[in-house]
């Protein structure tokens, strides 16, 4: 019988809990909740991952509790003594290091990352500097420990080494470049040794570590004379963190597209078809039979700054945020944006149906709408039609710059 279900996102803490479960060869089912946090929250109201559900209603959150539980659950005294400590003092030192990394260090890193990348928290220089300072202090202490000892808490690789090792790789992949890491040479040395431990072997790829640390780029000043400067003058998505997580609100009481009146093509019927019927065999043929190109236009939508994207789940979250901010216009729109590629080499593209012949009145309710480019698609052109079908069915690789790229994720705007 399965020993339970571990709910994760495929990076950071979730990834770590999964690696421990695998190493211990536990019979635990792994569920990635990235795309369905709402269902996850029904059972884990804080919505924080990882979470664990064991037999008979036993439930855990908190990564430390989960990995400790897994290690004890294995029932192998030798493994438990090595990973969790073999006497009172060792046990306490390991727990202390785990706790400090998880709360002090990651507690500073998490808002730092969000502010720096403009993903979810407004940029605040003082706060970013404070968080960086906290992290430098902790990195400094850990580095000092590793100048004198081989491992962080005991004389062997403990769970604290493994946990910090995995976190270190994450920071090195998303923000901290060689310039930051080289300040802590003992940690860099230790990283190489510990990343070969069976729990982590092959999990993180140091060839993906950044050379240069990511720095925040202040938004460019907007042109004074126009309320809506041209796309080229607009700041990039990552430079507009202040508006990143604000919900979209229609600026005027009436949406401008309301003026176009009621259409003969029923967008609601289409959304129902799309949601309830098989996409290729039923929904798409219905769409092309009923679509009215005078009432609605079709757009290829591309994120302009694909080279700034890092982890695919973060790209997908970016799309989710964009769609949330489009909520003021969603009754005039339908579409899908997909994420193609892999971590540190991915992009966002898609196809969107919009009431009227212009994309702007629908999209401009989202403060970050100019981070995307919009190309009108001609529904009488077979190639365009094929692109739209592929984006909405999202079951085949997408061709980008002549290359086939796998679609890894996506979101529906409806
Ligand atoms: N204290 C919790 C924190 C878990 C946590 O913050 N997880 C992140 C992912 S690593 C998360 O779920 N973030 C989503 C959110 O903050 O809503 C633990 O250590 O397990």
UniProtKB/TrEMBL annotation:
Residues 253-414 form the EF-1-gamma C-terminal domain. Gene3D superfamilies: 1.20.1050.10, Glutaredoxin, Translation elongation factor EF1B, gamma chain, conserved domain. Keywords: Elongation factor, Protein biosynthesis. InterPro entries: EF-GSTs, EF1B_G_C, EF1B_G_C_sf, Glutathione-S-Trfase_C-like, Glutathione-S-Trfase_C_sf, Glutathione_S-Trfase, Glutathione_S-Trfase_N, GST_C. Residues 87-214 form the GST C-terminal domain. One of its GO terms (molecular function) is translation elongation factor activity. Residues 220-255 are annotated as: Disordered. SUPFAM superfamilies: eEF1-gamma domain (SSF89942), GST C-terminal domain-like (SSF47616), Thioredoxin-like (SSF52833). This is LALA0S04e09362g1_1. The keyword Ion transport does not apply. One of its GO terms (cellular component) is ribosome. Signal peptide: none annotated.
